[in-house]
Amino acid sequence: MLKDDLNNFPHRRKNILTGEWVLVSPHRTQRPWLGEVSKSDLETIPQYDPGCYLCPGNKRANGEFNPDYKNTFVFTNDFSALIEDSPKAVFNKKNLLVARSEKGICKVVNFSPRHDLTLAEMDEGDIEKVILAWQEEFENLGRHPHINHVQIFENKGSMMGNSNPHPHCQIWAQESIPMEPGKELKNFKQYFRKNKRSLLSDYLKLELRLKERLVYENSSFAVVVPYWAVWPFETLIIPKRKIADILQLKENEKKDFSNVLRVITTKYDNLFSTSFPYSSGIHQAPTDGKEHKEWHLHMHFYPPLLRSAAIKKFMVGYEMLAEPQRDLTPEYCASILYGLSDVHYKHRKQ
Q1: What is the predicted pLDDT for the residue at 171?
Q2: How does pLDDT run across 235-252, given as a tens digit for each residue?
Q3: What's the DSSP call for residue 234?
Q4: What is the domain class of 3-347 according to CATH?
């Protein structure tokens, strides 16, 4: 069967990062995809909200007051999922009931003092300040002797469980290497041992040559809809130079990273003329003190929207009981994202 045949008939694609598979069923879409352009957000979000626990000067849940910060602001999460002084404990009942304690630290990073901004609407210079905050937190948290993994992630929009629109992300640092980066670490190591090269370096080289799933690139980064994408408009940001973590970014690469973050989030907003929800996260090498020559930094974007601002993809039935499945091919979704403007729809001249 040729590649063109695969684009017309059911087939499975392998996620080379995790080793898992996704079922693709392109024959279920016998007509061109018709996306519904939603009306622009009617709700006006103020620049400052006196009731927001993330805005400058306001009181947080633990009774502390935020400083009158002007750029980014980082603090320890008032309701941390992980705590640093968790007592050490192990439970094992015949290898059937198994648990162990987990130490960790959870931080919140406010992107901006303005309540009404998202990455898509921030200046690239201000996004670069967010990157600097990520670097500082990754370095400081990674130095802790019991911290072996640092996860930077953002949940944007109420659809992703975020009830506060103030621009912010979270950082969870913990003893264990979590399951998703753990699966990637295994495959990175296997590929590096066999080929003496980075898995994502070779993958990106192929994607840049084919240009079938390329969404955007600058001198330092490329954005692709991965060949194995599960979510309709899922994307992957990959640095063109193999680096293990954000501490290795050069000055020009930090500027290019801020550019690529603004462009992809703007394209998302422009897709349905709405503030596009997503979960995103940077996967970096473990902070376990070992040399990770195999690791290649990358950033995942998992957006749930399918055909409009109100229609999302659900993981139900077969996907919960068997494996992920999609109808729209990654190539088709990439072509849609590629063709979108990088000027935010709110800022276009009428």
Answers
A1: 98
A2: 999 999 999 999 999 999
A3: -
A4: alpha beta
Q: Locate 57 and state its tokens.
A: 């000067």
**Does the annotation count 292 as an active-site position?**
no
Question: What's the rounded Cα separation, in Å, for the pair 136 and 107?
Answer: 12
Backbone angles phi, psi at 279, to 5 degrees: -115, 130
What tens digit of pLDDT does each residue of 141-174 get? 999 999 999 999 999 998 998 889 999 999 999 9
Residue owning tokens 């937190």: 137
Token pair listed for 3: 């590649």
- Give exposure, 60-99, as e/b (b: 16+ Cβ within 10 Å): eeeeeebeeeeebbbbebeeeebeeeeeeeeeeeeeeeee
Residues 190, 246, 238, CA angle at the centre, nearest 5°?
A: 55
> What does the block give as tokens for 162?
């975020």
Catalytic residue among 168, 283, 296, 300: 168
Q: Are 187 and 19 a contacting pair, CB within 8 Å?
A: yes
How many helices (DSSP H) and strands (DSSP E) are in the chain? Answer: 7, 14
Place 61 in a pLDDT band, splitting at 50, 70 and 90. Answer: confident
Q: In 10 A of CB 138, how many CB atoms? A: 21
Answer yes or no: is pLDDT of 33 > 50: no
Q: What ranges do the domains of the chain cover?
A: 3-347
Nearest 5 degrees, angle CA 329-CA 333-CA 336? 145
Q: Give the residue among 331, 253, 261, 269 at the shortest CA–CA distance from 303.
A: 269
Question: What is the pTM assigned to this prediction?
Answer: 0.94
Map tokens 């009942």 to a residue.
Answer: 93
Neighbouring CB atoms inside 10 A of 162's CB total 16
Confidence of residue 8 (pLDDT cuts 50, 70, 90): confident
176: tokens are 């264990």
Please check whether residue 164 is in contact with residue 288, taking contact to mean a CB–CB distance below 8 angstroms: no
